[in-house]
Design brief:
The complex is a heterodimer of chains A (291) and B (347). Chain A is mostly helical and 291 residues long. Chain A has 14 helices and no strands. A 6-stranded mixed sheet of chain B has the order 6-7-8-3-9-10, with helices on both faces. In chain B, strands 13-17-14-15-16 form a 5-stranded antiparallel sheet. Chain B starts with a strand and ends with a strand. Classes of the chains: A mainly alpha (291), B alpha+beta (347).
Chain lengths: 291, 347
């Protein structure tokens, strides 16, 4: 008797709480429409344009030495920046989540700076510092080290725009998990490194992977900051996004869209990996609860 | 001495958490650090463990000065208030952790580790849960796993931070008894922190009462209860009625049998069971009335109201066995005669 009235109560409550059908369908249609118009359609255009002159033209423009050099440079930039950003992110998150110190909130704000500053400004700042007329530029050129309009500058600019990704992901996670498990590990005789690898890392690994993934996507896709410091030297300082722009400006539409298709494929792969990560993470949780 | 604390002080900014604390704990004792929240008891425990550094003073474990040793070299077992089990490891791996992180030359073989872990899980009666994750355990089970994990490294001292703090009342009662028995079997010197005086009295062989970063009294539970060193301890341990002789209490305390000639101070603390009441005769000019009573199991707690000379009322609590109370045939509002058998005097 009680149970029945309780269920009817819940059912009626659900009914009054849910929105009318037309609201639901309108919102779904709107969302799908926007996604279709602004995300799917451009992606399709990229593919159509890339294959406009057939498969041979497509593969030829992707295997062109300049395109290959752009891809190699993009990979190099990612391979250098992602580990550096990861190390920085883990240490910053550790410092912020574990210690109390003066200026901590300022540090958190500073970590967010690259998110709020236009990447072009970031690039310009590096030109001002390391450029031929810059503060440190003279010293570096005196020692025959080229930073601006060379690979080091591209890596520096990419580092600037990517460095919040891992830290941002880890700080709230580590704050939530707290310090007790690590103290427990130490009290059981574990060394600092053992504690880090056997206790801290497993607890934050999904968040860390997520951060690394997003960081990688940004490192490979960054345009603004890199564009300022690169100098667009074909085959030398063009990353894949820059290659897309340069080709387009020279009316090489197939070459441009072929490059764009590679970047789009990268985005899709990133999304798939992210989804798999999330699925794994949830399964991990379910496994522990269900046994 | 198994644990020596020598002149330990600790400040957090302007706040003094521990003020020149010295403490000796003999081998095999089960000691309660008891005090209200903020008294420094957890800080003291963490300093003994090495999880916190003292500003001044030294810690000795089994005669070894460990003040500058990191926690991992102190040979202690620490049980955290919220257990701090490794959430991504099974119960088995949690207990095995301390054995597996040892340097290779001190480490047991995998088979020996497994044997030892299962023995410890048997000891805490939870071997059947060995492949579960902490999320799947109840609070009491987690607590026992945390204890097994701490015992795995064969600590020379066992430190427990509010071991029953996060548990249901009924589970807590069972675990207290269980911990006492376990300590009896293992005989490892143990300190636990608690703010619950009943828990401290029930479990510990020695109680250290802390307040405002200082030790107020140290002794066996019975001694502390029967001979409180000061007003704070008397009030904190057990129930007590406080009578201030300067405030109109002198007269009636005399009629209650607590002669002012015997007084050894200005303030009298009287335990509820040291108050005897009787129904007064009809023509008595008694000024104490029975307001209400509550059943505390075998005892009855009686709330009395005493109206003073100036007309102000104050509550007095008395306790007596059930059957004795029934024989008095008292009703709410009855006037009663009150006699005090014993008091502690403080200045």
């Amino acid at each position: 008797m009680n149970a029945i009235s309780a269920t009817t109560f819940i059912a009626s409550k659900k009914l009054t709480l849910s929105d009318p059908d037309w609201v639901r369908y309108a919102l779904i249609a709107l969302t799908l429409g926007i996604i279709g118009l602004f995300l799917v359609l451009p992606l399709l255009t990229v593919l159509i344009e890339a294959f406009a002159k057939g498969w041979t033209a497509y593969s030829a423009s992707l295997t062109h030495p300049d395109a290959l050099a752009a891809m190699r440079l993009t990979l190099l930039v990612a391979v250098v920046t992602v580990p550096l950003t990861t190390v920085f992110g883990v240490s910053a998150a550790w410092a912020i989540a574990r210690f109390d110190f003066r200026g901590k909130s300022l540090l958190i704000t500073l970590i967010d700076l690259p998110f709020s500053v236009s990447p072009v400004i970031a690039g310009l700042v590096y030109v001002l510092i390391f450029g031929a007329q810059g503060w440190l530029g003279l010293w570096f050129s005196g020692h025959d080290i080229k930073i601006i309009f060379a690979v080091p500058g591209i890596i520096l600019a990419t580092l600037f725009v990517t460095f919040p990704f891992v830290a941002r992901e880890l700080i709230p996670l580590m704050q939530e998990i707290g310090h007790e498990e690590e103290e427990a590990a130490l009290s059981l005789g574990a060394s600092g490194w053992q504690t880090f690898f056997k206790v801290t890392m497993p607890n934050v690994k999904w968040g860390l992977l997520n951060g690394v993934l997003l960081c990688n996507a940004r490192a490979m896709g960054e345009f603004g900051a890199v564009s300022v410091v690169s100098g667009h030297i074909r085959g030398l300082t063009n990353t894949l996004p820059l290659h897309v722009e340069v080709s387009y400006n020279e009316y090489d539409f197939v070459g441009s869209f072929a490059g764009a298709s590679v970047l789009a494929a990268l985005a899709v792969v990133t999304l798939v990996v992210k989804t798999v990560l999330e699925w794994k993470r949830n399964q991990d949780k379910r496994l522990k609860v269900k046994g | 001495m198994s644990i020596s604390v020598n002149h330990i002080s600790k400040h957090f900014g302007a706040f003094t958490a521990l003020d020149n604390i010295s403490l000796e704990i003999p081998e095999g004792e089960l000691v309660a650090l008891l005090g209200p929240s903020g008294c420094g008891k957890t800080t003291l425990l963490r300093i003994i463990a090495g999880l916190e550094q003292a500003d001044q003073g030294d810690i000795f474990l089994k005669g070894d000065k460990v003040t500058d040793k990191p926690v991992k070299n102190r040979q202690i077992g620490f049980v955290f208030q919220h257990y701090a089990l490794f959430r991504h490891m099974t119960v088995f791996d949690n207990v095995a952790f301390g054995l597996k992180v040892k340097p290779r030359r001190d480490r047991l073989s995998d088979a020996d580790i497994a044997k030892k872990v299962h023995a410890l899980l048997e000891l805490v009666q939870l071997d059947w849960l060995h492949d579960r994750y902490p999320d799947q355990l109840s609070g009491g089970q987690r607590q026992r796993i945390a204890l097994a994990r701490a015992l795995a490294v064969e600590p020379s001292v066992l430190l427990l931070d509010e071991p029953f703090g996060a548990l249901d009342a009924s589970v807590r009662k069972d675990l207290r008894q269980w911990l006492r028995n376990l300590h009896h079997d293992l005989n490892v010197t143990s300190i636990f922190v608690t703010h619950d005086q009943e828990e401290a009295m029930e479990v510990a062989s020695q109680v250290v009462v802390l307040n405002h970063g200082r030790i107020e009294q140290q002794g066996a539970p019975g001694d502390i209860y029967d001979h409180p060193a000061n007003a704070f301890v008397s009030r904190f341990i057990g129930q007590t009625n406080v009578f201030d002789l300067d405030e109109h209490d002198a007269d009636w305390l005399q009629t209650a049998g607590l002669l002012t000639a015997q007084q050894k101070g200005k303030i009298a603390h009287v335990r509820p069971h040291d108050i005897v009441i009787e129904k007064s005769t009809a023509d008595s000019d008694a000024f104490v009335t029975l307001k209400d009573w509550q059943h505390l199991g075998s005892l009855i707690r009686i709330e009395l109201v005493k109206s003073g000379a100036a007309g102000q009322a104050a509550s007095v609590y008395a306790e007596m066995p059930n059957d004795q109370f029934r024989r008095l045939h008292l009703n709410r509002g009855d006037k009663v005669e009150l006699r005090i058998r014993h008091a502690h005097w403080f200045h």
